[in-house]
Amino acid sequence: MLRLATLLSLCLALVNGLPHVPRIPGVLPRLPRIVGGVEAAPGEFPHQISMQRDGLFGLAHSCGGSIISETYVVTACHCVEGRNAASIFVLAGEHDFSVNSGNEQLILASQLIEHEHYDGQTFTNDIALIQLGAPLVFNDFVQTIAMPAQMELVSPGTNCTTTGWGTTTEGGSIPDILRKVTLPVVSDADCRVSYGVTDIADHMLCAGLPEGGKDACQGDSGGPFVCNGLLHGLTSWGYGCARPNYPGIYTEVAYFRDWVDAHAV
């Protein structure tokens, strides 16, 4: 049975692999959860993977990612920065960590390809590829997701869906089942009012509600942000979690499509 062994193993994975997030007065740092979402149905998001790290307590979920071919997964660079491929596994076809459905495929990574201009302080160019040591077998529970063309941008106001695993309340228990939440895209101009002009690069995508309450968070890092059936974003960073006037920040895939095509060969 594939499941998270202990809460401690998850905590160690989070401490060792997720980004430092800037703090501002009265706002908590990002926490590992989908906030304000609901459980996904089995097979609803067959492109979603769990990136698992092999550590002291065995395998533990640390980040999300999306299948783009039989042998490549795209994720956030902060999820793999400085890591050894020999300690990274991709778990595809997963829905409920507590149940062995027979649809799961666990494959060791063979190579981690980080964007050459990634900056861990600003989260610019927060994108990476995981090359798998063996090809995935596609079925109803394991499939690729299409990406937008280079500079095929999504419009502000578009409702998109992000998915992932993680605690559902601050200090709460770890849910075994994949969760989803739908969020509207926020314009770069509005996002810069919240975060500052220099913090939001053109290749970042913002999404959230003005009143807060719904968001993707750190344990969902690298996971998909899907608009109209296309992978438009990768969960990256943000101030707090589901806080009013602080939308979540995603790597905007349309700025990196040429980079992905050049490296996923």
Cross-sheet strand order for the largest sheet: 9-10-11-15-14-13
Specify the number of helices. Answer: 3
- Contiguous uncertain segments of 5+ residues: 1-33
Instruction: List how many beta strands DSSP finds.
Output: 15
String of helices and strands: HEEEEEEEEEEHEEEEEH
What integer value in Å does the Rg equal? Answer: 17 Å
Average pLDDT, rounded to a whole number, is 85
**Ends distance:** 33 Å
Tags for this entry?
265 residues, mainly beta, 6-stranded antiparallel β-barrel, 6-stranded antiparallel beta barrel, 3 helices, disordered N terminus, TRYPSIN_SER
In short:
The protein is mainly β.
Topology:
Layout: H1 7-17, E1 34-35, E2 38-39, E3 48-55, E4 58-67, E5 72-75, E6 88-92, E7 105-114, E8 128-132, E9 159-164, E10 179-186, H2 188-195, E11 204-207, E12 215-216, E13 224-227, E14 230-237, E15 248-252, H3 257-263
Antiparallel strand pairs: 1-12, 2-10, 3-4, 3-6, 4-5, 5-8, 6-7, 7-8, 9-10, 9-13, 10-11, 11-15, 13-14, 14-15
Account of the 3D structure:
With 265 residues, the protein is mainly β. It contains 3 helices and 15 strands. The protein has helices at residues 7-17, 188-195, 257-263; strands spanning 34-35, 38-39, 48-55, 58-67, 72-75, 88-92, 105-114, 128-132, 159-164, 179-186, 204-207, 215-216, 224-227, 230-237, 248-252. The strands form 3 sheets. The chain has a 6-stranded antiparallel barrel with strand order 9-10-11-15-14-13. A hairpin with a 4-residue loop joins strand 4 and strand 5. The protein is globular and about 45 Å long. Mean pLDDT is 85; it is low at 1-33.
